[in-house]
Amino acid sequence: MRRWITNRSFFSTMFISITIIVTFLVLILSLVLYTYVGQVVSRTLEEANRSNLAQISYSANYMDDSAKNLAFSIFKDSSTTPLMYSDTIETSDLVWEREQLSIWASSNPLVHSIYVYNGKTETYISSYTYAWERAGADKGIFDVLRKLGSEPKQVKPISRKIPLDVAGLKQTEVEVFTYVLYDYVSRDGRIEGAVIINIKADYLRDTVNTLASKSDKTRGNIVIVDKAGNLVMDATGNYEHQWNLQPMQDHDPASASLRSKVVTIGKDKMLATYTDSEHLDWTYINVIPYDLIYQPLTSIKRMTIGMCSIIVLAGFSLAYFVSRRIYFPIGELVRKVKDITESPSHHPESSANEMTYLSDRFSHTFHHAKSLDLKQQLRSKTEALHNLLLSRERLEMNSLCKSFVTHRLRLNPFKRYRLVFIQFDHLQAFAQRYTPRDQALIRFALLNVLEELLLPHYVCEVVDIGEDRMVCVLNLDEQVQEELLERMLTEAREWSSQYLRLSFTSTLGEVYEDMHLLNEAYQQVVQLSKYRFLLGHGALITKSATLEKSDASSQVPIPMMEKLLERLASGKGDQAYAQLISVIADARQGSYTSMLSILHVMIYRINQKIRAIEHSSSLQFNIDFNDFTAKLNEAETLDEVEGQFAVLFASIAQTILSKSRSRTQVIVDAVAKHIEEQYVDPNLSLQSLAETVKLSKVYLGQIYRESTGQSISDAITEVRIRHVLRIMQDHNGSVSDILERVGIENKNYFYKQFKKKMGVSLSDYKLRHLHDSK
Q1: Do residues 577 and 645 lie in contact, with contact meaning Cβ atoms separated by under 8 Å?
Q2: Does the pLDDT of residue 465 top 70, yes or no?
Q3: Coil, helix or strand at residue 499
Q4: 3-class SS at 160?
Q5: I need a labelling partner for 281 at 20 to 30 A (CA). Which of 19, 107, 385, 571 fits?
């Protein structure tokens, strides 16, 4: 009976576990299926909305471009200017101009009508009438013009309705988009003349209605609203009084990408898909009832629930038979273990089930074998070799041999040997990329790879010194196989780079006869490894390679240093950095110590130069050269040092050039002030101004144009034009007298410049000004 209960406990646990797994998998698969179908429906709907809104955007942009092009063409036409600015116009000319407007209007199917507005008479002539209209059918255009006169100048569509009786039609009103193009605005905010284009709203409405009709089955709608949230166009007319743009105003206005948001319109929950126009301050919105979007998912949801129920029931049956099948070999195993480990009179009554019993038996065996742990032996051997390498005392051969035997080292202390020093590259990045545990695992993997490569050819031991260092101690035969060793180290480095993403530099020490100088050999190879600073990451450093470098280049190249400091003080950071590269390139031929000496002298000289500049000027560089020197000492290679100097030079040059730019602005301000004060001087010119500020006229002209975007000659003319207009407003003298008062001698040149800037001749401007004053 007890055995049946024990068996039943394990069987129940397995049965319940399998059932839960099957149920969990079914639920996950169902959720994935449901989510995927929902994504497909959403993606299909989004693509359809994207196409609809793209077509609307294209039509709106086409309408906008057509209206603006037509408006600019009429505005720039020479025959339009008199209509906008003249007091009177001949009847024959008026008829001809009206015919021209009618031709322009009929040539573009989007155009409803064209007006030319005259601000002086506050009337307009349209493509429909042969006379000026002051209080015609389209009275709303005057409100539009008054509003535009008080706002920043821009050409944008204005949605409005205008009467149709001007065209002799029976309809009362028609929707249009009005574009107003004008140039001059009087001081009281009145537009002096303008070209007005009325575009038929039916063109855009037809496009919107056509696209909206495709969504009739889903009761969808397409609307257009402006930047202020006002309704511009609605396909169905359902939202004229309840549309609100507020739910769409939390996005980035600079983005024109397609976006979606759930909004509530009235009592209905809607999915609004919207995008912004690239040219117009409009937002195009496609609205679809939210419940109809996911209606197809309801039937899929029911079907999924039904199928899941069937699969779960089938899973119960499958779990029962699988549990019985799995339990059978476990029961047999328990019986055999009992027969081997226990007497017939002993029964594991305290065990909850068979798995607990087996766990107890296996745990006992494991603890018994743990006494033979090889990991402890490996640790002991590593510590012994580590202590020998770092020892500061002379090693005795007797104690050395005893240590080798005690810790089972493979090395022969009486045989020739050499050390291979392994140093990790990019240590700081390595420490940041991996946790301490991962770092230990990577070092252990590299240690094993080195042993696997070296042991077939050498009697050796590889020890992890810690941080970024490993040491290989190799017993050598009579012949030193230099090429073989270098090839194996190269292979290890390539494997480490590929699989561990770790680069290291190898240093081959000298050959020693016996190991009583093992600690000295270690210190020698560590000193040799410092040449990584000159040879770079991943190098294979040997004694012969370093012997080629001498201390001949230990002297600091004074001429090159002076050029570097001179260019740095002039703000030429790039040239100073190029000079630095030349100095380092020459110093590479020397030793590691000579290179460090040159770099420290260079830092000292740069520090002195910076302090001298700060003392003689108001510049403050705020450079911590102690911190810079510390970073230089921590650098692994010269490439890192060059990068640090590049950042330093860029900072110094930027500080120096910022002061140079400030001086340029002072000169430009002084020139502008002198022009304003001496504009009546006929001899005022670039030459006289250059003599005043004591600069060459070429340099002065260059920096003034770079700072202001105009030449000094244009600046003088602009100031004189401004004062001519002021004098004309206050006095009624002749044009010639006025020009003499502002220091103008070449009147023909000034007439051309005035007309170029103001758009009308000086005499015409004076007539218009006097007329307005009256």
Answers
A1: yes
A2: yes
A3: helix
A4: strand
A5: 107
Least confident piece of the model among 52-61, 233-242, 265-274, 642-651: 233-242
3-state secondary structure of 557: coil
Q: How far apart are CA 522 and CA 168, in angstroms?
A: 108
CA dihedral 656, 660, 663, 669 (to 10 degrees): -130
**Amino acid letter, 155:** V
Whether residue 101 contacts residue 127, with contact meaning beta carbons closer than 8 Å, is answered with yes
Strand order in the sheet with 282-289: 231-234, 221-226, 282-289, 268-276, 259-265
Residue 103 gets which letter from DSSP? H
Phi, psi of 225 (to 5 degrees): -125, 155
Please tell me the distance from the alpha carbon of residue 575 to that of residue 220, in angstroms, as a whole number: 66
Structure tokens at 602: 């260079």
What DSSP designation does 590 have?
B
Q: In 77-107, where does DSSP find H-type helix?
A: 80-85, 91-107
Tens digits of per-residue pLDDT, 51-62?
878 888 888 888
Give the pLDDT confidence score for residue 241 in this predicted structure: 47
3-state SS class at 264: strand
* DSSP β-bridge partners for residue 768: none
328-359 pLDDT tens trace = 677 677 777 777 766 554 444 444 566 676 76
pLDDT at 135: 52
Q: Are 102 and 137 in contact (CB under 8 A)?
A: no
Residue found under tokens 């798995």: 355
pLDDT value for 489: 92
123-126 vs 282-289, strand pairing mode: unpaired
Cα separation, 706 vs 398, in Å, equals 84
Rounded distance, CA 524 to CA 503, Å? 22
Q: What is the pLDDT of residue 112?
A: 86
Instruction: Please write down the long-range contacts of 663-668, taking CB distance under 8 Å and 24 or more positions apart.
Output: 664/703, 664/707, 665/707, 667/693, 667/695, 667/700, 667/703, 667/704, 668/703, 668/704, 668/707, 668/708
Q: Which segments within 82-230 are labelled E, that is strand?
A: 111-118, 123-126, 158-163, 173-182, 193-200, 221-226
The answer, yes or no, to whether residue 720 has pLDDT greater than 90, is no
Helices 638-677 and 592-616, axial angle in degrees (round to 10): 20
* Strand order through the sheet with 540-541: 459-466, 469-475, 417-424, 504-512, 540-541
What count of other Cβ atoms lies within 10 Å of the Cβ of residue 230? 10
What is the Cα–Cα distance from 30 to 25, expressed in whole angstroms? Answer: 8
* CA 107 – CA 127 distance, rounded (Å): 12
* CA atoms of 489 and 446, how far apart (whole Å): 11
Q: Which residue from 412, 410, 399 is spatially nearest to 377, judged by alpha carbons?
A: 410
Helix (H, G, I), strand (E, B) or coil at 636: coil
Q: In sequence order, what DSSP letters do the residues of 371-439 get, joined into one string?
A: GG-HHHHHHHHHHHHHHHHT--SPPPHHHHHHHHHHTT----TTS-EEEEEEEESSHHHHHHHS-HHHH
**Overall residue count recorded for the chain in this entry:** 774
Q: At 180, phi and psi to the nearest 5?
A: -120, 120
What is the residue type of 599? L
**Can you read off the two tokens belonging to residue 457?**
């050819």
Nearest to 569 by CA among 502, 659, 482: 659
Q: What local confidence, expressed as pLDDT, does residue 128 receive?
A: 73
Residues 189-198 as b/e (b if ≥16 CB within 10 A, e otherwise) read: eebbbbbbbb
